[in-house]
Structures are given as structure tokens and as C-alpha cells.
Write a structure and sequence with these properties.
The protein is α/β, with parallel strands linked by helices and 361 residues long. It is 43% helix and 20% strand. The strands form two sheets. Strands 1-12-6-5-4-2-3 form a seven-stranded mixed sheet, sandwiched between helices. Strand 10 (291-296), helix 11 (299-306) and strand 11 (312-315) form a beta-alpha-beta unit. It starts with a helix and ends in a 5-residue tail after the last helix.
């Protein structure tokens, strides 16, 4: 049943991407490199293929924006967090690479350094510099309203990636491109159930508060564990803020306060790798004494799988460049863009980690 559903999903994805050459090639790659066997060529596939869309659509006409040729345009990219995180490094580079590849007139890039006020001012500054199209990786789901309103007032379309904003689609922004974060949580729970045989005590290292990624990854995991593995008890949920050092600190505290923990679900790889460091310092064997599952798909986390210090990684692919610019081209061609364009993510475990290492970021 799952295979049939995946086949239908892939077919829908390729249909959605058919008018964009690069996105269409992504569909072809997904058939050959997205399987469980892994593939070092995955790193060359700059973006995963959209699973399809949901929500009401948005077109150039309904949004009320002027026509634009990207080769003559000023495009702005607003990154939310400092690029100490491999996800952010890969995401920004993907946007830059694809902008160069498609010949964007001028690309403006900013980094909010994890400060909401700075992201608002960054976006406003890019608008002042003449940005005609914006790609925004929001820091939080709430709080960007002043920047979004400023863009809407100038009829500058905004495409959000990797985190959703709690605003009105086709008024405050065109569409969201990103993963199904609830599904990522479910898949992480399935991997944890497999690794633990459905028994033990689990700690959750939560991501940063205030965004839908943390909320959804938590919900998917907690609900699936409750439904499928009552023998797995969630004994702690503490915020590690998506940072390795913070994840390590939280894990050090949990080793002392909850010595019976046998598993850790980290809502990103950086926190999971911090937990590995803490466990090893405490004389425990991560991946064996304490099972670890996380979300992202960084090279370091997949290497930890190869080393036997990890049990599973659910991918959250940051290579948005090709999909973002393919979506922009469709939008300016007059096509209707779904409110939510969901990308398809792979998973890594001990069966495919070594073969897949070259495709991790």
C-alpha cells in the first residue's frame, strides 16, 4: 500500500514539475537516487522533488504583482539563522548557485543571525534596494508581518521556504515550499520503534520555539509513539534550540536527572550530535546503550550512522534553489502555485548510510 502511495506521489510530483526543466530532471533523479540503497549522486541533486501541493492556489493575476523576467530582476534572499548549521549553509549556497545558473539579474542575500528584528529590517532593506521578488526562510512562524506587509505594499511577491508563516497565502506571501514536518516526526517515531523494539524511555530534544517545524515534528513523533508503541515512555521534552552545544548541554543534564533514558529523539541532527558527545563523555555508547534518531540528513549525522553511534536520520533537504526558482518562473508565466508545495525527503539507517554518505550535506 505504501509503495502504491509513493508511486502516485511521485507521478503527481513530476506532473507538477513538468513545465520546469530542472524540476522535471529532479523527478527523473528521484526515481533512481531516492531509494533505500542510497547514492552518492544525491548531492548533485540540488533540491528534492515536490510531492504535490495543497491549499488554495496563487497566480500572478490573483496576487496582483507585475510581470517580471528573472534575468532582469533583483531577487532577495533572507536567511534566518547564522550559518554555523550545515542546513543553513547548504540552503544559502543552493539559492546562490541556482540564481547564478538561471541568470538572475542581481541576487541580494542577508542573514538575520537568529534575530527576528534583524530579519524584518533585512527584508525592508532589500525592498529599499529594489528587490522585485523575495525568497524568505522565516526565523519564526509569527512576527514577520511588518516585513510581509511592506513587500505586499510594493507588490513584491514573497516565497517562503523551510518554515511556514502564520499569514495569509496569496496576500502576504505566494506559497510555502518545504517538508511535511508532521510526517517527519512520524517517520522518526517509526525508526525509533524499530531501533528500540518499542520499549524504553525516550527524551525529546525540541527545536526552537515559535515555529511550525518544532511543533509539527513533536506532534508527529508523540502521536505515533502513543498509537503504536505504548511501551516507549516519553520521559522528558527539553529545548535544545536546534544547536549542537545546547543539545549537548541538555543531554548532560538529562543524564543526571533521568539516568534511565534509553533513547533520544532530536528534532535536528545538530542536537543529536551534541547528545552523542554528552553520552560518550558519560561513558555510554550512543547508538547502543542509548538509541538516537534525528531529522535533517547532514553528512556528520549520516557518518555517525556509519560509525554505529546513531540509529536513523530522517532527511529534511535544504537544497531549495532549483525548486524555488522553478516555482518563481511558473508564477511569472501565469501558472497557479499551490499554497503548500511539499518536498519529498529520504531516510537513512544502517542499511543505506554508507552508500548514501556522499549525498548527505
Amino acid at each position: 500500500m505504501m509503495t502504491q502511495r509513493r508511486s502516485r506521489t511521485l507521478a503527481a510530483a513530476c506532473l507538477l514539475a513538468a513545465t520546469a526543466t530542472l524540476a522535471a530532471s529532479g523527478c527523473a533523479k528521484s526515481e533512481t537516487t531516492g531509494g533505500d540503497s542510497g547514492d552518492s549522486g544525491q548531492e548533485a541533486q540540488a533540491a528534492t522533488t515536490p510531492d504535490g501541493g495543497s491549499g488554495r492556489g496563487c497566480s500572478l493575476r490573483t496576487y496582483g504583482a507585475p510581470a517580471l523576467d528573472l534575468k532582469d530582476a533583483v531577487v532577495g534572499f533572507s536567511q534566518s539563522e547564522k550559518e554555523a548549521n550545515p542546513f543553513r549553509i547548504a540552503e544559502t549556497q543552493s539559492i546562490k548557485d541556482e540564481a547564478a545558473r538561471v541568470g538572475v539579474g542581481k541576487l541580494l542575500t542577508t542573514n538575520a543571525q537568529s534575530q527576528l528584528s534583524k530579519q524584518i529590517s533585512d527584508i525592508q532593506d532589500m525592498l529599499a534596494q529594489g528587490a522585485q521578488f523575495l525568497i524568505v526562510a522565516p526565523l519564526n512562524s509569527d512576527g514577520l508581518e511588518p516585513a510581509l506587509k511592506a513587500a505586499a505594499a510594493k507588490k513584491v511577491p514573497v516565497l517562503t521556504i523551510d518554515r511556514k508563516v502564520n499569514s495569509t497565502a496569496c496576500e502576504d506571501y505566494v506559497a510555502f515550499l518545504g517538508s511535511d514536518f508532521v510526517e517527519q516526526g512520524r517517520r522518526a517515531a517509526d525508526a525509533m520503534i524499530k531501533a528500540t523494539d518499542g520499549k524504553g524511555k525516550v527524551a525529546i530534544l525540541l527545536g526552537a520555539s515559535g515555529n511550525n517545524v518544532t511543533t509539527d515534528r513533536t506532534k508527529g513523533f508523540v502521536d505515533r509513539i502513543a498509537a503504536e508503541a505504548p511501551g516507549l515512555e516519553i520521559v522528558a521534552q527539553q529545548t535544545g534550540e536546534f544547536a549542537r552545544d545546547k543539545g549537548q548541554q541538555v543531554m548532560e543534564q538529562l543524564i543526571q536527572s533521568k539516568p534511565g533514558i534509553t533513547a533520544v529523539y532530536a528534532e535536528n541532527d545538530e542536537m543529536g550530535l551534541g547528545a552523542v558527545t554528552a553520552l560518550k563523555a558519560a561513558g555510554k555508547k550512543p547508538g547502543k546503550d542509548v538509541k538516537i534518531v534525528s531529522v535533517d540528513g547532514t553528512r556528520n549525522a549520516v557518518q555517525a550512522l556509519v560509525n554505529g553511534e546513531y540509529n536513523a536520520v530522517i532527511e529534511s533537504n535544504p537544497r531549495f534553489g532549483p525548486l524555488a526558482f522553478a516555482t518563481a518562473r511558473k508564477f511569472y508565466a501565469g501558472e497557479q502555485i499551490p499554497e503548500n508545495v511539499i518536498i519529498s525527503d529520504r531516510a537513512y539507517d544502517e542499511s543505506n548510510a554508507k552508500a548514501s554518505l556522499g549525498g548527505a550535506y
